[in-house]
Amino acid sequence: MNNETLLSNLRNIPDFPIKGIQFKDVSTLFKNPKCLDIMVDEICEMYKDKGITKVVGIESRGFVIGAIVAHKLGAGFVMCRKAGKLPADTRKIAYEKEYGTDMIEIHSDAITEDDVVLLHDDLLATGGSMLAAYQLVQQFNPKATFINFIIELTIEGLNGRAAFPAKCDITALLRI
Ligand code: AMP
């Protein structure tokens, strides 16, 4: 159920970065200690018995809560970054965006077949970026993969979940 404290502290910026987009600004949740507490607690409660060994955060807003949750779950934290930012050998995947393509990477030694992965990002819109991250993580053949967002956007006919294979386990703290 949507947490009222999170909902009331989330900032909406109309027409950012372009006209027509209602930008959900999670920085107002990150800066608020109570909201930080609620987000971390709710995610840890959902995943505490799943045997998570690695939390993979999507650059850059997925790094904030992802790293705290990893620490609380006793798991490691892995960065999924835009191309060219990681210094060691990487696995990569390209994906289509509204304008052109994008590439994301994870260090080749960051995930093993023994890992149970929790993928985390701030927001699910069309699902394009998380689907690419999910497919990239599958290249490592982990034991299991879970997906979590702070916000799932369902307004204006968005149904990002539909982009994922039916077997994917996807959760969100807020559905807006
Ligand atoms: P998508 O790949 O379409 O699911 O877009 C998700 C990514 O874009 C996330 O990393 C979000 O941070 C960002 N994003 C997309 N739409 C919004 C929005 N309305 N408000 C805030 N962030 C958004």
Brief summary of the model shown:
By secondary structure, the protein is α/β, with parallel strands linked by helices.
Head-to-tail CA distance between termini: 11 Å
Q: How many beta strands in the DSSP annotation?
A: 9
The number of domains is: 1
Q: What is the tally of helical segments?
A: 5
CATH architecture classification? 3-Layer(aba) Sandwich
Bound small molecules, by name, code or SMILES, are: adenosine monophosphate
- CATH fold category name: Rossmann fold
Could you tell me the radius of gyration in angstroms? 16 Å
Runs in which pLDDT lies below 50 for 5 or more consecutive residues are none
CATH class: Alpha Beta
- Major β-sheet, in short? 7 strands, mixed
* Helix percentage range: 25-40%
Order of helices and strands: HEEHHEHEEEEHEE
Task: Please list the strands of the largest sheet in the order they lie side by side.
Answer: 5-6-4-3-7-8-9
- Report mean pLDDT, rounded to a whole number: 96
- The computed structural class is alpha/beta
Q: Classify the beta-strand content into a percent band.
A: 25-35%
**What is the overall shape?**
globular
What does it look like?
This protein has about 180 residues and is an alpha/beta fold. It contains five helices and nine strands, in the order H-E-E-H-H-E-H-E-E-E-E-H-E-E. The chain has a single domain (about 50-175), classed as Rossmann fold (3-Layer(aba) Sandwich). Strand 7, helix 5 and strand 8 (about 145-150) form a beta-alpha-beta unit. Helix 3 packs across helix 4. The longest helix is centred in the first third of the chain and has 15 residues, at about 35-45. About 35% of the residues are buried. The structure holds adenosine monophosphate (AMP). Adenosine monophosphate binds near residues 58, 61, 121, 130 and 160.
